[in-house]
Design brief:
The complex is a heterodimer of chains A (414) and B (404). Chain A has 414 residues and is mostly helical. Chain A is 81% helix and 0% strand. In chain A, α8 runs antiparallel to α14. In chain B, strands 2, 3, 4, 5, 6, 7 and 8 form a seven-stranded mixed beta sheet that branches. Chain B has a four-stranded antiparallel beta sheet with strand order 1-11-12-13. In chain B, β9 and β10 form a beta hairpin. In chain B, α7 crosses α9. The chains are: A mainly alpha (414), B alpha+beta (404). The interface between A and B is medium-sized, with 16 and 14 residues.
């Protein structure tokens, strides 16, 4: 009995040490852009949108596990591998694509942060630059491990979504049913929105950041089981929070027929319906989500950038040693801030569009995951099994078809 | 000088015009001076054929191989350019990441191809995207040289390549980022430093042979670094003409101390050669020569020739200099005419230039002209700046004097 306890103590401690890349990536999938998309979708379709959650969790868990496994086995980031195996042309084209898609998300996150600051009566012209400056200096000065701890602290604030959902007094049995049995009518708009919800949860940048942070954390093959477990667990936990966000909005705004254009607006609109506290909780959550997103998403592009060109790029380094890495990070933040600082800047067009683009790029990223995960020479005994391949391919096909149908439908049959 | 990006994908056919496929990759022997041994050709069915480079006949535009070519296999110690070198991460000796291998530079020496360096510049990437010409034009608009920065092969540890990494012999801060025109010279210099280390150990016969293969600058440098006894024994094994050329570029005290250590017969032979010619080269040379920066295009070079050489008696060569105004290459006018007008001269110049010093005796200069079949021979100082040239007319004057 004692032995049994000892063994579990060891396992749990190891898990705590290993945990990080999976959880941070999964929670960052619920970034400010994510909150915005979930809010808009839930306000428009109510509980009907909950049907997307279980499939999305599955896609997230499977794809992130493959990405994490490749990173642990090869010790390389995704951009490293693409450059080395597919050459500079493919790498550059993919990088430009990823940069555009990610920049859309950075815009969402910086503007989500701005919205959250306004919500709490803070002047964004002062506090937005200050927050971003703090973030940048912290990333430069701290190591990977301290940065990860900061992210964990930020993640605790996601709990506010849980309270927000409780206060909205939803019909929980309806919530449970909607997650399993499809409700309402199918429409092109619903398909398009579903792809956007998928695109904000399962992201292209998520694949880059999980691989690069595993590399930066220097996780070794001995810990692969723990990392796989973390990725599965993180996918489920983060999507449970997604559910709370959707429920909080669906139970209030949808039932009253209020359409919104962003997350901050959702927080405001919730207040008269479910009480000030519910709205405030939603706002705190948005603040945390914006902060996490502003860190993680530009970091993923910066990792990809330094891997692509072979520059040093690690959170463990000071500014000079990884100057291209940090430089590219701050470049994105400043560029996004220039847009967002415009008082009249509206994000509504970008929100769904950026997520949709993300969903569109995913099958391409899945293709490379498929190639690397099945490379005998690269992966050895850790290569994909048939079931994983079947899931990966069918996910890519379904997402591609849904993306195209959704887009065509959105354009022609509005 | 050839870039891998410019060669890869070229059509390969046999001498009698039968299409074989496209050039996909090179195979090279991983060593201090990596020689390309095999071509990898992808045929129409996308299958890879490995053909020894000995079958390669011509490379003007497309690749032409002998019609009776054979197919072979990879051997031990051989690596692929594409799989083992291109796009790989370059790390310094401490493991710091520097950049990736953006392109690879080959140098042809007669029928052999060698890897001389790797391109680490953004231009190396643009070359793959077909944008480098545009970028070069743009850079030159602002007066920038428009050529890539390279790492010389001599800075790379060949042993590490087979372990999948491009590792350097030094720290990043000590790294020299070279211009293409200086690559060959840098290789020779490091080669010389290695040679000097090796020469202390190996037998003198071999040392003499190695030294006589080097450029005169480095020959002088080596002899200068050895003790007179060692220098004397190496000098005694060298070709007397070359020996005199080296000796005379040293100070009088030094060459006399070396020559006094030589065996009687050799000493007299060399002294005789030295005495033979008292005519200083300076009085024979002409300053009617033209030099251009290595980043010049053919068009710019021709413009310069038109502008500056109208009143010259003759012109056979264009000399190429680097940023420090050192002689780094040469091209004859025929070669120049054959090139595309926008090609930069460093791409096609001959890097191994035959040169002499002001101290070189006339006889030896003339022997060099004859031996290498040159129309003109450049005279340089110890900083490698060109001072002037000896024209072919020196040779005809010399012969007519002898005949009289």
């Amino acid at each position: 009995m004692k032995k049994f306890f000892e063994r579990w103590k060891y396992r749990i401690l190891t898990f705590i040490i290993v945990a990080g890349p999976g959880l941070v990536t999964a929670f960052a999938d619920n970034d400010a852009g994510g909150v915005a998309t979930y809010s808009v979708a839930a306000a428009k379709f109510g509980y009907q949108i909950l049907i997307t959650l279980i499939p999305i969790t599955l896609v997230l868990a499977i794809s992130q596990e493959i990405g994490a496994r490749i990173a642990i086995v090869t010790g390389k980031g995704l951009a490293d591998l693409i450059r080395e195996f597919y050459g500079i042309k493919v790498a550059i084209i993919l990088f430009i694509l990823i940069f555009i898609v990610n920049f859309g998300v950075v815009l969402q996150d910086v503007s989500g942060l701005k919205g959250a600051l306004i919500l709490f009566g803070l002047d964004y012209r002062i506090f937005l630059p200050l927050t971003l400056l703090f973030l940048f200096l912290f990333l430069i000065k701290s190591t990977y491990s301290y940065t990860e701890k900061l992210f964990f602290i930020v993640m605790i604030f996601y709990l506010t979504y849980f309270f927000s959902a409780i206060l909205a007094k939803p019909n929980w049995s309806m919530v449970a049913r909607s997650m399993i049995v499809p409700q309402g009518k199918m429409s092109f708009d619903f398909l398009y929105t579903s792809i956007a919800v998928l695109g904000t949860t399962v992201t292209a940048w998520g694949q880059f950041i999980i691989a690069s942070s595993i590399k930066d954390k220097k996780l070794t093959l001995a810990k692969i089981k723990y990392e796989q477990f973390e990725v599965y667990l993180a996918s489920i936990i983060s999507d449970v929070f997604t559910m709370f966000m959707m429920v909080a909005v669906a139970a209030t705004l949808f039932s009253k027929g209020i359409l919104i254009q962003g997350a901050a607006e959702a927080a405001l609109a919730i207040k008269p319906l479910a009480g000030n506290l519910a709205g405030t909780f939603f706002g705190i959550g948005l603040l945390a989500a914006g902060f996490l997103g502003c860190a993680i998403v530009p970091l993923s592009t910066a990792y990809a950038f330094s891997e692509l060109f072979g520059f040093e790029g690690s959170l463990d380094h000071g500014f000079m040693k990884s100057r291209f890495f940090y430089g590219f990070f701050i470049f994105q933040i400043i560029l996004a801030s220039i847009f967002v600082m415009q008082p009249k800047f509206s994000l509504f067009q970008i929100t769904l569009y950026a997520d949709f683009l993300n969903g569109f790029v995913l099958p391409i990223i899945f293709y490379y995951l498929y190639r690397f995960a099945n490379d005998e020479h690269l992966m050895g005994k850790y290569k994909n099994n048939r079931f994983q391949n079947f899931l990966l391919i069918s996910m890519a096909v379904i997402i591609s078809v849904a993306s195209i149908v959704g887009l065509v439908g959105k354009i022609f049959f509005k | 000088m050839l870039y891998f990006s410019e060669i890869r994908g070229k059509k390969v056919s046999t001498e009698d015009g039968i299409q074989v496929g496209r050039l996909d990759d090179f195979i090279f022997l991983s060593s201090d001076k990596p020689r390309v041994t095999k071509l990898v050709i992808r045929d129409a069915k996308n299958e890879a054929l490995v053909v020894p480079i000995d079958f390669l006949k011509k490379t003007n535009g497309n690749f032409i191989i002998a019609k009776n070519y054979l197919i072979t296999e990879l051997q031990e110690n051989e690596l692929y350019v594409l799989k083992n070198l291109l796009d790989k991460q370059i790390i310094d000796i401490k493991g710091n990441k520097i950049v990736r291998v953006n392109d690879i530079v080959f140098q042809r020496e007669e029928t052999n191809w060698y890897i001389v360096g790797v391109d680490i510049d953004l231009l190396g990437i643009l070359r793959w995207l077909g944008l480098s010409e545009l970028a070069v034009k743009f850079l030159r608009l602002f007066g920038l040289p428009g050529s890539s920065r390279f790492l010389s092969w001599s800075d790379i540890q060949p042993v590490e390549l087979s372990r999948g990494q491009v590792k350097l012999k030094m720290e990043e801060t000590k790294l020299e980022r070279l211009r293409p025109e200086d690559l060959a010279d840098h290789l020779e210099k490091t080669n010389m430093i290695n040679t000097r280390r090796v020469l202390r150990l190996v037998d003198e016969n071999f040392a003499a042979q190695v030294i006589s293969d080097l450029n005169i600058n480095y020959q002088v440098d080596i002899i200068r670094h050895f003790k007179p006894e060692k220098s004397a024994s190496i000098i005694s094994l060298m070709d007397p003409n070359e020996a005199v050329d080296i000796l005379l570029s040293l100070s009088k005290r030094r060459w006399e101390s070396i020559i006094n250590l030589l065996p009687e017969k050799k000493r007299l032979q060399l002294l005789n050669l030295i005495d033979l010619s008292k005519t200083p080269i300076g009085s024979l040379m002409t300053t009617e020569f033209i030099s251009v920066p290595s980043s010049f295009t053919v068009r710019e070079t021709i413009d310069k020739i038109k502008k500056e050489t109208a009143d010259y008696n003759f012109l056979d060569y264009v000399y190429v200099v680097n940023e420090k105004n050192q002689l780094v290459g040469v091209s004859n006018l025929h070669e120049l005419m054959l090139q595309n007008l926008d090609e930069q001269v460093y791409k096609f110049m001959t890097q191994n230039v035959i040169t002499i010093y002001l101290t070189t005796p006339e006889e030896i200069a003339i022997k060099k002209i004859l031996k290498y079949e040159l129309q003109a021979l450049p005279i340089i100082n110890e900083k490698k700046n060109i001072l002037g040239v000896l024209g072919f007319d020196v040779l005809s004057d010399f012969i007519s004097k002898k005949i009289k």
